[in-house]
Specification:
alpha/beta, Rossmann fold, 8 strands, homodimer, 13 helices, 3 domains, globular
Chain lengths: ~325, ~325
């Protein structure tokens, strides 16, 4: 079933061997043949990790805060995985990650694994790919996985929705302060952090957040939800870690939510695999190229072309391998 | 083929009848049965509009700037559609749009159509949905369509990539100024706008952008690429409109890029339709529910479940109707 290379990598990852772990993640992320079987083999070793989602607008200091949190959790005896979902540009590509690795002290680094997700053309979908990588880290014994996403886009929301605890990082002086919170984030956030709290306006941002929370009338558990931190000085980080630990201990999810999440994941995995097969099938198929040429010269349109190509596919065989 | 309601709506939209236009967009956006045929009927009426993508981080003033641009283009004789891709939260839902409609003066509003995209659970994919709505506006005679996206997520990048001209809005004092530009945006942006230019630091942001552009060594056309504006006072907006007009006139795309874009669109339409059919097929199918229960109690995993359900689908019939 699972070939020798995959087997060695899965075993190495479960033994928390960093090189095997990194290679396994790369192969799973790029959907190399056999990745599903590798995940099947890993799966029984997962389920212990708590997933912490960190989001917020660019420049809010999410990465520095994630580093502080990681160091703090390590000091409390945890092993911490960090997944940075940061679409790289030709201008920033990877620099951030390099800096972070250099900055981290040796004592911490043994218990921390940082991984940056490639977001461009993510074959399995960004949210599913992140979920897969989090599971690999879970199997490798990282009992706390921080998933850090830049921005407030739809994919990012999907990603943090998969976390057990979701934290939104705000910062004083950024636009209207709370405008960054608009993007569907309020309703999925468990905790709000006003970072760079030494700056002017931190209290106002906190007050704005509390105002919005009061409006929502949604305070299911009575726990504190708004925190101020300075990732640079470390102020407020301990209190935040306490709060995160308390919430993480309250996981797992309700049975209904867990079922719904699994159902959605199975459907997404199926859809992605079918999409992959359709592309393989149509690659180099003259009908697709002809249809595209017909669109460009005005003899057809994308909607008609999709409809007739789909009819041509006639029957789409199942089966795991193609 | 196309039922009477759809026919009436398509006709009404092509006549720029606002109510028909709004209803048609809603039905296309929610993928009501027959939407593909409606788009097929509309398609021959499209192709005149230029698409302008506006992106940038939250709080950069994109909406105000889009309003200014719309007013300016209307004054120059254009009809302008605005598509606001703004994931709404329970706290902001639609308020923005209402405000904008109230603010707009009557003379302008006759030539402007504003539409907010629902981003949650967008069945056809957010990027494709936005493309479809832009086409409907095109068919209705809006010869300039501004697509405004909040944030810098992956979906947002996909959306603006479909535009003919892409503009990134920055603002002084937001994080590191250029940090908001990291997210894969630099390479797809044609123009950079430093908005709120009356604030301290605007010149520094402009210098940072010029520095990055110089580094990229990529100046294919020699046109000015960096602008300062104040959406509040209107300063700089006319020069920006000039620049946008110049660039829009340089469209259309190279033949290769146009072919690639059509190819990708056809594949995405096919994938989405197959995904929809898979979901319809599996809805209420006991096998999916059983697989999900097995995952929850540890007898299976999502990867195995997806694999075996896919094998069960055995043959996937094509054909447009189901």
């Amino acid at each position: 079933m699972l070939d020798e290379t995959w087997q060695r990598l899965v075993q190495g990852a479960c033994d928390a061997e960093p090189r095997a772990l990194a290679r396994l993640i790369s192969r799973v992320e790029s959907r190399e043949a056999g990745w599903q079987q590798a995940m099947q083999a890993l799966y029984p070793h997962t389920g212990r990790a708590r997933i912490l989602g960190i989001t917020g607008s660019p420049g809010a200091g999410k990465s520095s805060l994630a580093d502080r949190l990681a160091a703090g959790f390590v000091a409390r005896g945890h092993r911490v995985g960090i997944i940075a979902v940061d679409p790289s540009s030709p201008f920033s590509g990877g620099a951030l990650l390099g800096d972070r690795l250099r900055m981290r002290d040796a004592a911490t680094s043994a218990a921390v694994f940082i991984r940056s997700m490639a977001t461009r053309g993510s074959l399995g979908g960004l949210a599913q790919g992140t979920r897969d990588v989090a599971r690999v880290l879970d199997a490798a014994g990282y009992d706390l996985v921080l998933i850090e996403t830049v921005g407030v886009g739809q994919d990012e929301i999907e990603i943090v929705k998969a976390a057990d605890v979701v934290m939104v990082v705000c910062v004083p002086g950024q636009g209207d302060g709370v405008q960054a919170l608009k993007a569907g984030i309020m309703e999925i956030a468990d905790l709000f952090v006003v970072n760079k709290a030494d700056r002017d306006g931190a209290d106002r941002v906190e007050a704005d957040i509390r105002g919005m929370l009061a409006l929502s009338g949604d305070d299911p558990d009575g726990l504190e939800r708004v925190f101020q931190t300075s990732a640079v000085s470390g102020a407020g980080v301990d209190a935040l870690i306490d709060a995160l630990s308390t919430r993480a201990a309250r996981v797992p999810l309700s049975a209904d939510r867990a079922l719904e999440r699994s159902r959605e994941e199975v459907l997404v995995l199926m859809e992605r695999e079918i999409a992959r097969r359709v592309r393989v099938r149509l690659e180099g198929d003259g009908r697709l190229e002809e249809a595209v040429r017909n669109i460009r010269c005005g003899r057809s349109d994308p909607y008609s072309a999709a409809e007739s190509l789909l009819a041509d596919l006639a029957s789409f065989e199942g089966g795991a391998h193609e």
